[in-house]
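ASSEMBLY PREDICTION REQUEST
Request ID: AP-0331
Submitted by: J.K., bench scientist
Number of chains: two
Total residues: 628
Priority: normal
Notes: Please return the full assembly, not individual chains.
Input sequences:
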Amino acid sequence: MIKTNALNFKYNDQASFSFPDINLGKDENLLIIGSSGIGKTTLLHLLAGLLGSNSGSINLYGQDISKLTQHQIDKFRGQNIGIVFQKPHFVNSLTVKENLQLAQYLGNKEDQNRIIDVLSSLDILDKQNKKPKKLSQGEKQRASIAMAIVNSPKLILADEPTSSLDDENCDRVIKLLKKQASEFNAQLIVITHDNRLKKHFKKSIKL
Amino acid sequence: MNIFKLSIKNIVSKPLNSILSLALLIFGIGIISLMLQLNSLIKTQMDNNLKGIDMVVGAKGSPLQLILSAVYHIDSPTGNISVEDAKKIKNNRMVGSSIDLLYGDNYKGYRIVGTEQKFLDLYNAKIKEGRKWDDPFEVVVGSKIYSKFNININDELISSHGLRETGEQHTDQLFKVVGLLESSNSVIDQLIVTSPQSIWDLHDDHDHGSEEHDEEHDHEHDEEHDDEHDHEHDDEHDHDDKEITAMLIKFKSPMNIIQFPRQINEDTNLQAAVPSYEISRLFKLFGFGIETLTYLAYLIIIVSAFSLFINLFNSMRERKYEMALIRTLGSSRRQLSMMIIFESLILTTVGFFIGLLVSRLGVMFVSSLMEESLNYNLKSFGILNEELLLLGLSIFIGLISSIIPALQVYNLNISETLADE
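STATUS: Completed
Returned structure:
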């Protein structure tokens, strides 16, 4: 269902990256591991359609996203891909619930019940009317996962979700991500330099 | 949730920032709108009271003072003129109609005017209750006065001598209220109107006391014996005693307005003044101040556009990561640019309305000042056409200040922004 072929990206003559091909079936999760400066974030941005590749193709669920216009990619991403960033980020003028409503609006999937489901499954329903800045670190992280999954994406991309966490919290977060992905029928791709995550994934690629 | 709501939330979540970036715009719009309002209110008020008066004749002095006293009833009269002299002018073939005005007394600062009944028609004043005056010392009261002092039909008013409240009170001769006027939004609302005879009697009584009655009685006797002698005597009597303060003139033809006033000023000891000319002169005088202030306000508005631009630009840079996040959530570049433009437009539109509100408070303030010192009030808070132009200007400013920030957001490199974090 997820297939990349001879993916290549060039920032300039000094910095260019070639990525190994990815071939992921339905319901399969993937760990992409590599040290810093090797193009991990670049690969994630390519997969999410935030960057256009110089050569090669990315096929997500039967759609070659390198052939889409900017506007089509934005829509496709809004509906099919959820991204969990290294540091949680929100629209600060909105409450947690409003942030989720904005994500739904932009992904064209407005549904109040879904918001309640996601928040309760992440155990932060009581924080829905709080501004993100008022949340604790752990709550922020869970709220950012809520942002990524609220539109029931087919694919969840996580960028270094555990890099700044201790072992215990690292375990907790990766389990939470996997649980949410399987609960809401999404595939999970985690990109990290964190070797602790290896034991949680059957399939991994080293950059 | 949609982009418009998001814009509103962004503005509301930082109220201080928003107000600060609008302060100059509010200030500028407020000043211009205040000037427009005052100009239009004073002009309509002035014009309202000018209808049907082509020329005012009174004693020599300042022509503006004559107009202000006789037409607007806000300045002291220049003096009195004899009925004889007035009659000569009335009989001129260029004069269409004339109305005599007599001052002498006031009631709690409001002028009592002795005049002919057609004075009411000049302002289209209608009797609301009661009737017009017939006998001396019967008065009809303007709407502002009876509502302020709660005066009813058949009340008796004690007048004070002169035009100020502090004058000596005429307790021996009371004015009887026989009619109340409907509000006409002109000067007559703040006048008490009576027959000229009331004013003459009031002041003659002081000099001659009850003798006058006898004298008149004597004349009647005389009449039977010696007609010629009586005529002379009667004329002399008028000549000596009867004076009026001013005379409002309407010409037969508007052409006379050029020639006739000059003729009076040169050939007689009276003064003729043309209200429309004097008022436009007055407007030119303080119009200069209004113009200067208006230019200043436009300058402030231009500066406000810069201040708004800088504010939007900064807040956009601060929220760069948020913008990138919104894009990753599926927003198109156009939607994100619209968010910035909406924010700016909402701000300037709100700024316009706050500015309008400020100007209305200003009008209320000026009006209360004028009411206190001149017994003049300015009503009507309608929106002028020029103010709609100001709304257009505000929207225009909202658009141009947001163009650059919106373009920057449109061209935002999401990947780079996210990686830069």
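REVIEWER COMMENTS: Residues 2-91+154-206 of chain A form a domain with the Rossmann fold fold (CATH 3.40.50.300).
SIGN-OFF: pending second reviewer
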